[in-house]
Design brief:
single chain; 310 residues; alpha/beta; Rossmann fold; 2 domains; 4-stranded parallel beta sheet; 13 helices; 16% strand
Length: 310
């Protein structure tokens, strides 16, 4: 394994914070800042790096040089894992939900190019990803490995995400983030530094169990009440988008020079600004939105991707 310490010096950490200014925010007297985690690394960016950091250290401690994890055909998590594996001389295995396509999409091709072994499984098989028997079968097929759960949602992932709070030089009234697996959101609530800070998550998919899952993740701060998940801005479900959302992403890039995407960050920023418009936040509120990265996923939306001229 190449030195993780050497690799860390190539990362843009702490990630910068950018203030967003527009007429709406001025009128409502609300301040909005974005924690630019998408700038951590060109490929291993956002909360994906934060989730991987301590998992990789655990694998190193266990003397395991093969990492296995799970994801869909455009998984930001697997994309970051494959890139990290290539950088650190680690073997990687991706268990992909769904049938193998006749032609690999850009994300899957990147995984292969980074040396990741791909195994496609049916959606029914994929649901067994936490089943010990299923994991045993994978070990018979691939040999021993260090297992990282889908999305990096484990204790090591939460530990890495919690470090974001240590990077903040200012206090915020509300900290917002996208909520998929819930790893980042759980880390924020669990490691809250200020009793005055509220946490607002934006669900990116239809998941009525999400609040319960977050609560189960909270081992330290299990009785915390300073958090809420908004389920109104998923735009129809995971990876769903609309012309309206796509246009918002394009205009946001033109106006603020911050690239969003329609799976995570676009939905969150849309939701925040819509809530500002509806006067959900009191005048004087200072908001921090955490950009989770995942910009490679834009390639799954060819028309939007081409129009952005990235």
């Amino acid at each position: 394994m190449n030195s993780l310490e050497n690799f860390l010096t190539d990362l843009n950490l702490p990630s910068p914070v950018t203030q967003i200014k527009n007429k709406l925010l001025s009128e409502k007297k609300v301040e909005l800042f974005i924690k630019r985690d998408e700038l951590i690394h060109p490929l291993i960016q956002g909360n994906k790096w934060r989730k991987l950091k301590y998992n990789i250290l655990e694998a190193e401690k266990d003397n395991k040089n093969t990492l296995l994890s799970f994801g869909g055909a455009y998984s930001n998590h697997l994309h970051a894992l494959a890139a990290a594996g290539k950088q650190l001389n680690l073997k990687t295995i991706g268990i992909i939900r769904g049938q193998a396509p006749e032609q690999l999409n850009p994300c899957l091709q990147d995984l292969l190019d980074c040396g990741m072994k791909l195994k496609f499984v049916t959606r029914l098989e994929y649901k067994q990803k936490e089943n010990p028997e299923f994991i045993t079968h994978l070990k018979k097929e691939f040999g021993d490995f260090y297992l990282i759960p889908e999305g990096g949602n484990n204790t090591a992932g939460i530990k890495g995400c919690s470090e974001l709070l240590d990077e903040l030089e200012e206090e915020y009234d509300v900290i917002c983030c996208e909520v998929g697996s819930g790893t980042m959101f759980s880390a924020l609530i669990q490691n809250n530094k200020s009793a005055e800070t509220a946490y607002l998550g934006f669900a990116v998919m239809k998941n009525p169990q999400l609040d319960k899952e977050i609560k189960e993740n909270l081992t330290n701060n299990a009785n915390a009440t300073n958090w809420k998940i908004n389920h109104r801005y998923h735009f129809g479900g995971f990876a769903k988008t609309s012309t309206e959302l796509n246009n918002f992403i394009k205009s946001f890039k033109l106006e603020h020079n911050v690239q969003l995407e329609p799976v995570y960050s676009g939905k969150m920023l849309w939701g925040i600004l819509d809530l500002v418009k509806r006067e959900h936040f009191e005048p004087g509120t200072k908001i921090l939105a955490i950009h989770g990265g995942g910009l490679q996923g834009l390639r799954g939306y060819p028309q939007l991707y081409q129009s952005l001229k990235i």
